[in-house]
Each structure stands twice: as structure tokens, then as C-alpha cells.
Amino acid sequence: MPDSSITTKCCIAGGGPAGMMLGFLLARAGVDVVVLEKHADFFRDFRGDTVHPSTLELIYELGLLDEFLKVPHQKIEKLSAQIGGERIAMADLRHLPTHCKFIAMMPQWDFLDFLAKHGRRYKAFDLRMKAEAKELIEADGRVVGLRADTPAGALAIRADLVIGCDGRHSTMRERAGLKSDDYGAPMDVLWFRLTRKSSDDTDAFGHVEAGKMLVMLDRGDYWQCAYVIAKDGIEQVKAKGLGAFRDSVLTMSPFLGDRVGELKSWDDIKLLSVTVDRLQKWWRPGLLCIGDAAHAMSPIGGVGINMAVQDAVAAANRLAAPLEAGKVTDADLQAIQQRRTLPVRFTQWLQLTIQKRLISRVLTSERRPKPPLLFKLVGMFPLLQRVPARVIAVGIRPEHVHTPEAGPAT
Prior knowledge:
Blueprint: E1 4-13, H1 17-28, E2 33-37, E3 50-51, H2 53-61, H3 65-68, E4 74-76, E5 78-83, E6 86-92, E7 103-105, H4 108-119, E8 125-129, E9 132-139, E10 142-150, E11 153-164, H5 171-176, E12 180-182, E13 187-195, E14 204-209, E15 212-218, E16 222-230, H6 234-239, H7 242-252, E17 270-273, E18 277-279, E19 283-284, E20 287-289, H8 304-325, H9 330-364, H10 373-380, H11 386-393
Parallel strand pairs: 1-2, 1-11, 2-8, 5-14, 11-20
Antiparallel strand pairs: 3-7, 4-7, 5-6, 9-10, 10-11, 12-18, 13-16, 13-17, 14-15, 15-16, 19-20
Helix pairs in contact: 1-4, 1-8, 8-9
């Protein structure tokens, strides 16, 4: 039986932050777009939940901020860390040049549902759930579409442009033969949650001790916890037993003593394998990769979602008009890579520097750490805390929405 077939201007593989934001912006600009999401819904536990001020500023530019902030979330205005026996204020977001001077902690599924809801208001937006992009369709050396598995069977989608937004294990970039540089990571992360009490501190909190690190994010009624371990060290952690792991958590945050028993089995703890890589070339004729499909980020700073959204805005700004006219060129795709390379390279360089100079040393040390002099200076002078706040929350060369709204939404 032949594949079912449809034709569109743009087909986006992947319904994560990059794919959903790009699909929404293109449909808003009147460009026919099909977005494929392989799952039945957006509910995935232990995905990144940090919506930074740079992303909130884009939502403001779209006129949706008041509605967005009605979605349940928690606000992070300050970041602090305990290094050995000293607690240090690291970043103060309350002075940012943005409408929202905080990080919004919001489940990623709520963020994606919000974008999907507003995308569906435009007739050009076609979101297909349980549809997984599997193969590229090529003709004369150019990508002209893709094939997807759907509940109704195989579907061939012919498109002027295919955009890979299918994450760090991207099928699209693999099928396209795009090569990446792997920059390595000395760590993996164990994610888990523990009940939060109203009497607990509200700051985003990191604790560094000899051989271990713990980050705790306030999610309202629970703490989202990230326990940093050496790369590929999960089996060694398990070999010591769950009780030893609980004890290690308590040495970092003793106030969790009445709650750490909520970790009843290893099933309550999820492994995030950390990767930092970047494609050498983000595109081929007819195909562009953005977000994690183009550059996997370290979890340091929680910037992954926001870098993906920034990519999507840059892509929409450049592509909306040529897509509508049916005249997307290789120069358009190269221009997007060129625009986004600087912020991505800078952010990854910063992450890699922190990994090498701080995290790798901590994970291999048996001596209780002391705060570096630079950290002490930042903690002593509140004005200096605005610098890391700006780097983490806004970044360099933030994007702004330049695509028009082609017509009224339904």
C-alpha cells in the first residue's frame, strides 16, 4: 500500500521548545507548517523546566505574557550556592532589563501546551501527535520532505523545507549525515524530587562538597533535585546501595531528613546523560537543524530550553517571508547558523569552562572545597551579582520577534 501523502511549506520534526515555538511563529505569519511530535502528549518527567527572562520577553512581544503567567509556576529571583562551609549569593535577577526579572519554573509540558494552544488558533498550523519522523525524502541532492510513522500508517510529507527539532539524538541530523563535534562532559545527573515544605528556603540552591554536588529547584510543593555524579558513574552509585545515596543527599541538605525516605527505589531516580556537542554545519539544501538537534547543551544554568527557543525565533525571522514565497535558499539557512553560532559557542564555552575548572575537580576531590576568590567577590558585592544574572537569564545577542501576524487568529 503506498504511503499517504501531504504537501506543506515547512515540516518540523519534533514538538519540543524549538519545534513548537517555530511552528507557532510560522503559522502566525501565515506560513503553512506541519509539526510532528512522536508522543501522544507533552508529559515527560524530569525535562527542563526553567523558562528564562529571555524567553518570557519573547512571550511579552507576542502579547501573551499576562496569559502565560496565569499558568502555575514558581519564580526564582536569586541564585545562591553553598561551597563547603560557606554560602554565597551568586546572581540577582531583580535588576534585569526585561519585563520579567525572574526565572519561571514551569513544567515543560505546560509550556508546550501553551504554545500548541496558541498555534492551533491559526489555520496554517497543523500539529500531528504520535507522528515520528523516520526518513528524509531527497531529490537531486536536496531534501524535499520526510516520511513519518503515524497511527494511520506511513505518511510522506513533501515540504519546501524540513527542520529538525528532534533533540540531541536527532534522527533528522543522522539521516542527513550532518557531523558534530563532541566536547565531552565529566558528569551525569541524577534527577529526583522530594517534598518541599513552606518553611524551606525559596532560593535556587546549589551545594558543593568533596566529590559531590547537589542542586535544588523550588517547584512549589516539591524540590526538583539534581545530584551530579561522575560521567558513566551510575553503576558505582547503585553498587553502594540506595541507603548510601540517601545519606549522601542528607550530608548536602540535612533539612531533608524527614523526606529523603520518599526515594523508595532506583525507579524514583532518573539518569540524565550529559552531552555537549555542536554540528559543524547545521543544514543541507532543504533541511535545517536547530535546538538540541544542532547543539546539545550542558544542564549548567538551565539554558537549554531558552537557547532552543532563541534558535526558533531567529529561524522564523529569517524564513517566514521566503517560505511564503517558495524561495528558501541555502544562503537563508547559512545565515541562521551564522547568527546563532556566537551565542551558542559562547554559552557552551562557559559551560565547558565550569565543567573543567569546577565540576571535574570537585567530583575527583576528597578535600572539602573552598569558594574561589571570584565567587567570594561576587557574594560580597551585590552589584557584581547582576553580571552572572545577565549571562544566565538573558545571554548574548538575545532574539526578538520580527515576524508579522498575517491575520486574526480564530
